[in-house]
Amino acid sequence: MNALLHLSTLIDTLNRRLGRAAIWLILAAVLLSALTATLRYLLDWGSNAMIEAQWFLFGLVFLLCAPWTLQEQGHVRVDLIYGRLPPRWRVMVDIFGGLLFLLPVCLLIAIDSWGYFLLSWQQNESSMNPGGLIWWPMKLAIPVAFGLLAAQGLSEIIKGFAALTGHRPLPDIAKGVH
Fold first, then answer.
1. Which domain holds residue 48?
2. What's the predicted TM-score (pTM) here?
3. What residues contact residue 63 under an 8 Å CB cut-off, 6+ apart?
4. DSSP classification of residue 106
5. Which end of the chain is less crowded, N or C, counting CB atoms within 10 A of the terminal residue's CB?
6. Helices 136-164 and 2-22, packing angle to 10 deg
7. Where are the alpha helices (DSSP H) in the chain?
8. pLDDT above 70 (res 73)
9. How many domains does the chain have?
10. Residue 177 falls within a domain, yes or no?
11. Any idea where the Tripartite ATP-independent periplasmic transporters DctQ component domain is (predicted)?
């Protein structure tokens, strides 16, 4: 169990660092958006690349912050039953949800989107808009991000099993901490 918990710590550290770095992309997108609008209204000059870069930055924020959000228990849950369960049952629900839903869906999307990226890369796909960006780097972010989300799901499952076997404390219901 110690080796698995060490793996979990490595996954957590990677996703936390990526998430914290990715939140700076929000500032970059806002500044780029302000610059784009300023140039358009003051100088009557626009750039499709600048507009597409804003889309890419916001997309990267959502893709790269999803694993960190899972780690921090920040994803929305339907809490009708879950919120009333004792800690041990919550952990079991999290484990089964991760195994039955999160991991299969993340792996399916990561595997399926890899082909989508490869086709884009082979064709050096770029925007149809004049002066637009190449698209394959953003398409690469999709399988990478879902791979990271699957890894974080695995980390949460490991921590859940560790809590059930006494290698970690059970979540604190009062604090909502897992």
1. 2-164
2. 0.88
3. 141, 142, 144, 145
4. H
5. N
6. 140
7. 2-22, 24-43, 48-71, 87-97, 103-122, 136-164
8. yes
9. 1
10. no
11. 34-161
